[in-house]
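Lest this sound abstract, we think one record worth quoting, the chain in one-letter code, the fold tokenised, each line plainly labelled:

>
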Amino acid sequence: MQIVKYWKAVAALLILMGLLGGGCRRTSGSGCPFKGGTVRVGIIISETGRRAPLIQEYQRGYEMARDEVNAAGGVLGCQVELVYEDDGSEPRGAQMAVKRLAGEDVLLIMGTTSSAATLPAVGVANFYEIPFLVPTSTSDLITEMGYEWVFRICSPSSAYAGTALDFARESLGNGATLAIVYDESLFGESGAVAAAANAAGRGLELVAYESYESGGQDYTSLLARVKEANPDVLYFVSYLDEAILLMQECRQLDLNPSLYLGSAGGFVSGDFLQAGPDAEYTIAVGQWAADANWQDANGRSAAEFAQAFSERYQGDEPALRTVLTYTALQVAADSIRRVGEDESLDWANLADVRLAVRDALGETDLQNTIFGPIKFDETRQNTHPVLLLQVIGGKFVTVYPEGYRSRAPVVPVPTWGER
């Protein structure tokens, strides 16, 4: 009889604990629901390999956002902790990085630094059911695979190509000729294919289509073939080192199209400006510049953000990749905050929390960020305008579309002999 009374008492206690919110449920205004007082976010970057020289452009955005979020009180009473994994600039490395992070208590993952690495990485994340937020990789395939756990901040390659070709047609008229030169990578191929596929529909005639292996030291023979085709528009899809080298060799060959267009990649990097006169008048196809008419939830403008960044990083200016990684972490923090409104969520159940973060990402509707409004469509792709940024006076200046530009573009660009 005493044993029966004992187990009745135990049962009653367990029921009472359940009614009082036993487990790890969070009520409004309570403290951080995670051990150690931190909420962990996985970040895949390239600390080694070919993409390593660009690590600062990615890392600075993540870390500036983390510090600002934490200084404002964190998320749900937690400090944000970034858990970095190196992909070695390789697709296989990105897959292994996701697997390692899957064993950590990260709520979501962000990265990588290239489309070639991101595409297999998001497939692994989708398998493990971990939200994956893509800040910078542009291949259309990333959001065309139908992965329910994958979201992207930047626009896809097809949007970059479409805006660039619209500008070319409006500037030069129907019948203008087009040459495409691209890096033999998923990033390069996706951008080049998108441009080639859309050229005829926009009244442009494709007269040259050339690819190259990255890491080369001399592309003059390729560019000589382009010069023979005499294009009105030269459209590059290149990473940084090749972007600078190609423009230097265009000058050496006196190759003079009416428009130089560079699709994202190296052309939107702040380091591209170090090419000096060789970069002048080039039009980068990107999504952000300091003169953009956007502001964050605190009313800070894009220009003021750029100033704060410059003060933090000894005079450096933020690159597009930096703004995208900064924005991605801010979007993640917003989603996690909204998850905290569900008082029935068991925070000790990591799978449930990750699912809630995924659903919150899908419901994101931020009107004010320094990157502009953030809202994901049915493919989990953010809808965002593509901007054309011309290098004028050694700085990126927004020149298209008209509703976003701060000045008119210089078209046609001066020949090398006229500069």
User: Anything to note?
Assistant: The first helix runs from residue 2 to 19.
